[in-house]
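Reopening this one. Same input as before:
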Amino acid sequence: MIPGWEQRIGVEQMLRRVCDDIRDDARDYVHIESGDLRDDIDSEANGDEGRVGSNLPYAATEEFRIGGRYSGSHSYLRKALYKRRTTR
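Same output, byte for byte:
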C-alpha cells in the first residue's frame, strides 16, 4: 500500500460521518429514563478506526439486558449499527 492512501481518499472523514450517524441513531433508539445515557453516547474516528458508545457503567446492561429491573432487550447500539445507510 502507498503511505498516506487513507488521507487521499478521505477514509477518516467518511468514517467520522458514519460514526456520527450511528451515534445520532443510537441516541434516538436508547431507552430513556433520565437522559444521562443518551447524552453520554459519543463517537470518535482516528485513522481507520472508529468508536461509538458510552462509558457509563450501566450502558452494557441497557444494551444487552444483563440483569436490571426491566425485562426485554433495549438494544440501541446494535440497532443503530445495523441500520441500512447510504453514502453521501
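So the earlier flakiness isn't reproducible anymore. For the record, Residues 11-29 form the longest helix (19 residues).
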